[in-house]
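Moderator note: this is an archived Q&A kept for reference. The question asked for a predicted structure of one protein chain; the sequence and the answer are reproduced below.
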Amino acid sequence: MTKGLERILTLSFGATGNEANHLGVGWLADESGYRWMTGQASELWVENPGPGQDLILELDASVMVVPPVLTSQKMVVGVRNQGIAQIAMSRPGTLGFHVPAALIEKPGPVRLLFVHPDFRRPKDLNPDTNDDRELSFSLRELRLSRVSARERTGPGPELPLDQMMTRFESLGENCEFGLLQRRHGVEPLGLLRFSFIEMVHLVRGLRHGFPGLGDPGTTEVRVEGVDQEYVVRDTVYGMTYHTWQYRPSIALETVQKQQTMRLNFLKRKLMEDVAAAEKIFVVKRGETPLGPEEVLPLYAALNDLGQNWLLWVVLADETHPPGTVEILLPGLMRGYVDRFAPNNNAPDLSANAWTALCIAAWRAAGS
């Protein structure tokens, strides 16, 4: 199987981890499964992976927050004294950062610096504790991957529009992209075509094959709305979706059985589609736009399994009109639409802009 990324380093943090020889200043003693960054900044040293290709740095991290006093903390990430990103984090998740090849071109070990100016002592935020450690972020795992070069084969083959639309697969937020496919007369099967899922759970599911999804004990079926529609919620990944089945036309027990079978089938299909690397996977978030630090872990998860393309969709701006795409990395495109459909009215989508975007993305990805 040809992959889009080559894993070159995995560090686990904590009492049974392998990170100790890589640590510089700014770390506390290891704990069970994680280690805290402390004070203003923390440094970590890695072997130089060699010149010529970009890297993806991923951090499985948590952050010390005490709402409402401290709801998030900032982190600035640097490589060899050059900043590459600044983010704010409010809850556990996976962060991803692009390390340009130029920063590691010179020989010698590579210093990673994490600046976290919002560190606080728990005892200053909670009078019930005497913990005076200066806490910011904690790490469970760090992954460093090399972006594999790809041979460009030219524009994708011209296909009838309906056939082309089946070569895209939504990675979930609402029904918008699935309804676009329906407007073009196609109804492709997809686990997340009409489902909501948070990014942290999507990345975790892709990395591990969605264990637990479709188990009878984790698949809740509820009756909602005046039309008494059955709505499914998965308790492992927080996925929710409509069934378009209604009481009393069909019994709850029948729907429950159908949906557990459906979820098991579709999760296997999604993992097979990712391994086959024949589709363009689509991700967008309308109300809270995604940042690069959220998209890159998804890009990494897909490309750990195959040489996949991810289309990250955002709103158009002055320099990026609707329907255009730009290639950010091999296998990663950012595309632009004029607007997203309202969450409470997914059929109100900008069909022309979405269609133009899909055509441009298909051509940019090549055959």
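Archived answer notes: The chain has a mean pLDDT of 94.
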